[in-house]
Design goal:
Elements (H helix, E strand, L loop, with lengths): L5 H76 L4 H10 L14 H4 L4
């Protein structure tokens, strides 16, 4: 058996504490580095998802603008048909839809066709 003096015991105990502190510091450093890596990866994923959403939003905005233009034209057309002489305008437009070499037949009420005495 080896007898260890009090000074040697204190030195060994101090060395053991330094190793424990070094080990704890290394563990803390590894955890911090792991968190930094996880945060970096998450940030990269969020950035790519944000870019995709912005591109999709741009596409949707373009489609919305086209549909609003169509709606505006349809409203104007609807308003034109219900204005004064809208019926005549509709009839003139439909006359272009008659197939070539066809006769257009217009039925009228005989009472309206006769002049009043």
């Amino acid at each position: 058996m080896k007898v260890v003096s009090g000074g040697e015991t204190a030195a060994l105990h101090g060395l053991s504490l330094e190793r424990q502190e070094l080990l704890c510091s290394l563990i803390a450093l590894a955890v911090k580095l792991g968190l930094v890596v996880v945060a970096g990866i998450s940030l990269a994923r969020l950035t790519s998802a944000y870019q995709e959403r912005m591109e999709r939003q741009g596409e949707l905005a373009a489609v919305l603008e086209l549909e609003q233009t169509k709606l505006l034209k349809a409203r104007e057309r609807f308003d034109q048909l219900f204005m004064l002489e809208g019926e005549q305008r509709l009839i003139r437009e439909q006359s272009q839809w008659i197939a070539p070499n066809r006769l257009r037949v217009v039925w009228s009420n005989p009472e309206q066709a006769r002049p009043s005495p």
